[in-house]
Amino acid sequence: MIRVGFIGLGEQGKPLAINVAMGGFDLMVHDLRREPVDELVSKGARAAHSAREVGVHGDIVEVVVVNDDQLEAVVLSDDGVLAGARRGSIIAIHSTVRPATIRKIGQRAAAKGVDVLDAAVSGGARGAQKRTMCYIVGGEKDALERCRPVFATSAATIVHVGALGAGMMAKLAHQVILCLNMLAAHEGTELARRAGLDPRALSEAVHAGAAQSRIADRWTSARPTAQNGALFYKDLALALELAHELGLELPATALIQQSLGEILGETGDAACERGAR
Fold first, then answer.
1. Which of 7, 242, 246, 263 shows the greatest Cβ crowding within 10 Å of its Cβ?
2. β-strands 115-122, 133-138 pairing
3. Model-level pTM?
4. Catalytic sites, residue numbers
5. 41-92, pLDDT tens digit by residue?
């Protein structure tokens, strides 16, 4: 039986970990909060006292944390995953972070004979609960194939996009497209509202027309909330940083980043403050 470690039991990580537990894997979990750990223990997982302990346990260790600093602390610290990981094990990073951070971790892990995948995910908590996630994976194909049964507990789609770091670059491109769709849905819907149109009729017309998108279909009933603002802001900041490194201008991406507060229902200053945390 594959032994799986899972670190980070937040809004998205917890349902992903639950799916692994329900898939019958030998699962060990770790989070700074006791409540989600206890919930996973009730579903058959074991609790770890440190990230290092998870590294000792796991043939595959999945990590879902918020940002680069948390990822480096969880994986590279003296009490981190890599300190406990065995040769031949795999660290699968689901957090959206800088491609350079992924490559740094990959180099450190390779020196110990540990594989790393940047297995970005799309679908959010809802997708995890419904098991309709898309995994966007960079790294060695052989390592992905070893992880596939674990990822399949939550995934409807698993796409290998290239070498290590490619998963994150593809996820950042995905987030640009996603957020620009949000801007289009917001402005179009606001135009119709100000004109006094029935939002349900507009939604039906957009769904049947050339402007149809998954974001537009859900905009009036299940749009992202202000709570999503910090993560979107962070992801777009990483996309703009990558674009700068590549000598590429993304003016519309910069605009949507600054407009997130208005679109998601909080002030721009609040969105920026949340994104900085």
1. 7
2. antiparallel
3. 0.92
4. 171
5. 999 999 999 999 999 999 999 999 999 999 999 999 999 999 999 999 999 9
